[in-house]
Amino acid sequence: MAADKEFDRGDEDVTKSAYDKYAEQEDVDPRCIPIKLDGPVPEHDAIEYPDYPAHDHETWSTLYMRQAEQLPGRACEEYLEGMRLLGLTPNRIPVLRDISLTLNEMVGWRVARIPGLLDTNDFFSFMARAHFPSTDYIRQPHEIEYTPAPDCFHDMFGHMPTLTNPFFSKFFQYFAQTFLRVSDPLDIRRLERFYWFTVEFGLINTSIGPRIYGAGILSSPKEVLHSLSGEVEVIDFHPERLGAQEYEVWHLQPLLFAIESFEQLESEFRAWARLKGWDS
Ligand SMILES: [Fe+2]
Fold it and tell me: Most buried of 51, 155, 209, 218 (most Cβ within 10 A)?
């Protein structure tokens, strides 16, 4: 396809994602090595609330207060509304079971409690059946500034509010179902890049300028400020272009993409999947 030629840079080992390559390095943080699940995990109203030590709630509170201060005028309205709907507060680490019940009532999604970074297929298998796989542990106090590993601040604060938007949650489920159908390594890389530049690092245009909806930005103090600074090149959403854009996992993002609406995200992803033959 002409579009493939235009955007496909063909300059890398397409059999490995950025995370795969990271996991092969020496001295890798074991929390960054994906886990293959060997059995069921607690879901929805079967998720128990851990007996967190006081310093875990303090970590949540510190992270929450610092991020929440930055978000007005930067995060998109759909995300801010989602925070209100889920009742997230700085007081204590939220209860996953309660979030699951609210999401289920609003958009038919539920939460599954997972032990850490999941194998990609396990990860998307949850989302393909409208379950958001979330950790329930939080980073250590010395990791307030940065952690390379997943934790519940990223999962709950970063991802869950946007899931309350029906267009976004429909897109997310369809994306996961599509991902599980695709087997060509180059197509898998395309979808991973698409995921990165939407779910994790997406911007949305509004009448008063671009706003953030990506969880990777919303849960990172540096990315929140950086993403809307003049240092970042913001490009209009174009699925094929996103699918060809390589990204940096461990550095601030130099380039981001802005959708016009969550309706557009859902409908254009579906159209792209049809065009690529990934819909059957
Ligand atoms: Fe994430």
Answer: 218
Asked if residue 110 lies in contact with residue 132, where contact means CB atoms within 8 angstroms, the answer is yes
Query: What is the CA(159)–ligand 1 centre distance, in A?
Result: 7
More confident residue, 23 or 4: 23
pTM reported for the whole predicted model: 0.90
| Strand residue runs (E) in the chain | 110-113, 131-134, 203-204, 211-212, 233-236, 255-259
238 token code pair: 């174009």
User: Catalytic site residue 57?
Assistant: no
Tell me whether residue 100 is one of the annotated catalytic residues. Answer: no
- From the list 154, 220, 227, 240, the catalytic residue is 154
**Alpha carbon separation from 270 to 26, 139, 264, 275, 276 (Å, rounded):** 39, 36, 10, 9, 10
Of 134, 171, 120, 117, give the one whose Cα is nearest residue 43.
134
134 is catalytic: no
CATH classification (class only), 2-9+40-276: mainly alpha
State pLDDT tens for residues 132-151. 999 999 999 999 988 888 99
- Ligand 1 centroid from CA 6, angstroms: 29
Residue 2 alpha carbon to ligand 1 centre in Å: 32
Cα-to-centroid distance, 1 and ligand 1 (Å):
31
